[in-house]
Amino acid sequence: MKLIVNHSSMQPIYEQITGQIKEKIIHGDLNEGTVLPSVRTLAKELRVSALTVKKSYDALEQEGFITTVHGKGSFVSSANQARLLEAKRREVEMELEAAIRKGRSCGMNEQELKELFHIILEEL
Known about the structure:
By secondary structure, this protein is mainly alpha-helical. It is 60% helix and 6% strand. The chain is built from five helices and two strands, in the order αααββαα. The chain has a two-stranded antiparallel sheet. Strand 1 (66-69) and strand 2 form a beta hairpin. Helix 2 crosses helix 3. The protein starts with 12 loop residues before the first helix and ends with a helix. The relative contact order is 0.11. The mean pLDDT is 92.
């Protein structure tokens, strides 16, 4: 599994790992039942502590994204559709907010932003 850890980031490493795995699940890159690398394997691959990876897996399990079977490994859990849909909606909301902020920084007013939104919406 390809994950990128930025050791100089202010975001804790376990949060980086958790976020990237969540994204892969939400975007369908990791499907239900997919086996995740073992804690030790991923820790070696990323050159981080096994405790860091374990903390990420624990967080993912607590949020319902993965399930861990002792002695068998960690698997992408059966998709909780409501949870995945909510995560996707939050992502859309954040992207729209970023676009609105960018538009305002360019001097666009509310009416111009709405018109642009409707134009783009009609084209799709």
